[in-house]
Specification:
The protein has 447 residues and is α/β, with parallel strands linked by helices. 31% of the residues lie in helices and 23% in strands. A hairpin with a 2-residue loop joins strand 14 and strand 15. The longest helix has 16 residues. The radius of gyration is 24 Å and the shape is globular. It binds flavin-adenine dinucleotide (FAD).
Length: 447
């Protein structure tokens, strides 16, 4: 039941109007937390610049990891609640300003993630066929921004820079055969291109050693079960086995897998996925298009990699840089340039303006890490907001959207897009995604 408060001699509703910007995990966990906090006394509008929800669950998580993508069903449960509305195809900072949103909502929560690649900062980074992982992953996952990337996979050798799970995803996708994508929702344009690839070596470069990898056992273990590719670890790169005892259990499992890879060898497989540890990229080489990566051998001082002065060149016909992400700045929102995210104190940016998820803490942690984040920001909002609201919420937004002729996509429209994607899926695949915003919007009109 709605409560009414007497405030400044007027009766005001205790209803809160929240605008959550971003429909990824952080956005929907925040919506879930707000429902728990205020029950019927909250109206939540979840904005996204795309006409489709779920952020990196749709466009980041690997297409051959469908069980992980299934978390979107939980967000759908939240999205379908009466007091939660999806407002897709609206870019905050372009279609509507932060000040306008703050005029309409009691709290604006930025859950915009970290969609831009962190630059490597090395000569040659702009050469052809060198991609950041946001672009490359977006390409094989059908993100409209990267659908036309067109990586050239006709060469023999790929270099993947980074020693985290994203580097593993990229190497695995490059290594798989067509048959191994069965049941995945990899988009057709990527499947076709990967199918004609003739790579015979993929090198994963890491500045530090096996004990410092940020790869989890499940993802690492998959490399040992590919049909044509084999993981190659140099036994000499592995620390003495006794040193593994000091690792936490997850990391110890990962290192054990690396030891197994070192012992197993090629086993008749032809595509080598080589871990080049203690290898710090110094320059991307090439003339117009990439031909190699100049690398300096490192050694560890404590946990830090320091150069030894010894350099060598790793041949590369394609390079994918997987070293992390940055948030996109939004006009008038304080930004921490060094950290690459919004400037905030535990999610508070300014009165009535908050951030959550990767936009708050940077690109670390798993999907689940965003849940406590969402609950924490709602606790802060609850502590900050005075009771009562004179904001217009969605009614005000709808008027503004009409005046600006914004092509807003509602959750029911998304369900039409989803249905159409399911219907046009190739056999065995859960969906064939639309990769252009125009096609997505046309689908909402056609049915
Ligand atoms: C390649 C890759 C693979 C991953 N695989 C896994 C995995 O297997 N398991 C796991 O646990 N975690 C995985 N993660 C991590 C996980 O995806 C993140 O923890 C999570 O998505 C972060 O949630 P978020 O809501 O902060 O950001 P996002 O998921 O990025 O969502 C941000 C949303 O904001 C929207 N947006 C951005 N700017 C605007 C704007 N100006 N106006 C309106 N909307 C905007 C975007 O369109 C997007 O929908 C992976 C990450 C990557 C990059």
């Amino acid at each position: 039941m709605r409560v009414a408060w007497q405030h400044n001699h007027e009766w005001e509703s205790a209803l809160r109007h929240l605008a959550i910007i971003g429909s990824g995990p952080a956005g929907y966990y925040t919506a879930e937390a707000a429902q728990k906090q205020w029950g019927d006394d909250v109206r939540i509008d979840v904005f996204d610049r795309l006409p489709v929800p779920y952020g990196l669950i749709r466009s980041g998580v690997a297409p051959d990891h469908q069980s992980i993508k299934a978390v979107s069903r939980r967000y759908e449960g939240v999205a379908l609640s009466d007091n939660v509305h999806f407002i897709g195809n609206v870019t905050v900072g372009e279609d509507i300003t932060i000040a306008e949103l703050q005029g309409l909502y009691d709290a604006v929560i930025l859950a915009t993630g970290a969609p831009n690649d962190r630059p490597l900062g090395l000569p040659g980074e702009g050469l052809g066929n060198v991609f950041g992982s946001a672009a490359f992953v977006g390409w094989y996952n059908g993100h409209p921004q990267f659908a036309d990337l067109g990586p050239d996979l006709s060469g023999k050798s790929a270099v993947v820079i980074g020693n985290g799970n994203v580097a593993l995803d990229v190497a695995r996708i490059l290594a798989k055969t067509r048959a191994e994508f069965e049941g995945s929702d990899i988009v057709n344009h990527a499947l076709e291109r990967l199918d004609t690839a003739s790579l015979d070596k993929i090198v994963i470069l890491g500045r530090r050693g096996p004990h410092q990898i940020a790869m989890t056992p499940k993802e690492l273990g998959e490399l040992g079960h590919l049909s044509r590719a084999w993981p190659h670890v140099e036994p000499a790169d592995l620390p003495p086995e006794a040193a593994d005892a000091a690792l936490d259990p997850g990391q110890r499992k990962s290192v054990t897998l690396l030891r197994q890879f070192a012992a197993a060898g090629a086993q008749g497989k032809r595509l080598e996925v080589a871990f080049d540890f203690f290898a710090s990229p110094r320059a991307i080489l090439g003339d117009g298009t990439v031909s190699g990566v100049e690398v300096e051998r490192t050694r560890l001082e404590g946990d830090r990699a320091v150069g030894t002065g010894e350099t060598y060149v790793v041949p590369a016909s394609i390079v994918v840089v997987c070293i992390g992400y940055q948030t996109s700045p939004i006009p008038d929102v304080p930004f921490d340039e060094k950290a690459g995210r919004f400037a905030n104190e535990e999610g508070r940016i300014a009165p009535g303006l908050y951030c959550v998820g990767w936009a708050r803490r940077g690109p670390t942690g798993t999907i689940g890490t965003n849940r406590p984040d969402g609950f924490a920001v709602v606790e802060n909002i609850a502590a900050d907001l005075a009771p009562g609201s004179d904001k217009q919420g969605r009614d005000g937004f709808d008027r503004l959207a009409e005046a600006r002729a914004l092509k807003v996509v509602r959750f029911s429209d998304w369900k039409k897009i989803e249905d159409a994607e399911t219907r046009r899926a190739r056999e065995g695949a859960p969906r064939e995604k639309f990769v252009s915003i125009e096609d997505m919007i046309a689908t909402t009109r056609n049915q």
